[in-house]
Amino acid sequence: MTKQDDDGIKRFREVMKLMIVLQASLEQMDEIKDIPHLYRHDIKKSVNILERKLEAYLNPLLETIPNEQEGIFMQIQRGVEQILESTLEEIHNFNLEDGDK
Q1: Spatial distance between the Cα atoms of 40 and 12, rounded to a whole number of angstroms
Q2: Is the pLDDT of residue 57 over 60?
Q3: Nearest residue to 26 via CA among 95, 83, 86
Q4: Terminus of the chain with fewer CB atoms < 10 Å: N or C?
């Protein structure tokens, strides 16, 4: 594998992490929409726009994933669900209990 390939994979992984965090943010914003002073529709709209722009960047990369690796999308969704279902204490203590990941 060339340095350029390594850089491309690293960039892809970093953007995927950002997509997971954005998706989790959008879903968490839905959880607080009944709290007027915390929920702002314009912020959610901005996050949605950013997510769509990143998806446009990712789509060419995603199309290169072989069919047998399409389970990556299920793993991403499980990651989002795990974040959303975790308590603040579980999120904070994640690296302390499980080691650096």
Answers
A1: 30
A2: yes
A3: 83
A4: C
In whole angstroms, give the CA distance from residue 22 to residue 4. 27
Task: Please name the residue that has the structure tokens 């769509």.
Answer: 52
pTM of the model: 0.60
Does residue 29 contact residue 44 with C-beta atoms inside 8 Å?
Answer: yes
End-to-end CA gap in the chain: 24
| Closest residue by Cα to residue 21 from 76, 89, 92 | 76
Where do the domains of the chain lie?
A: 3-98
Q: What is the dihedral of CA 27, 33, 34, 40, to 10 degrees?
A: 160
Residue with tokens 């959610």: 44
pLDDT tens track for 15-50: 778 778 878 888 888 888 888 777 778 888 887 888
> How many whole angstroms separate alpha carbon 37 and alpha carbon 33?
9
Residues in the chain: 101
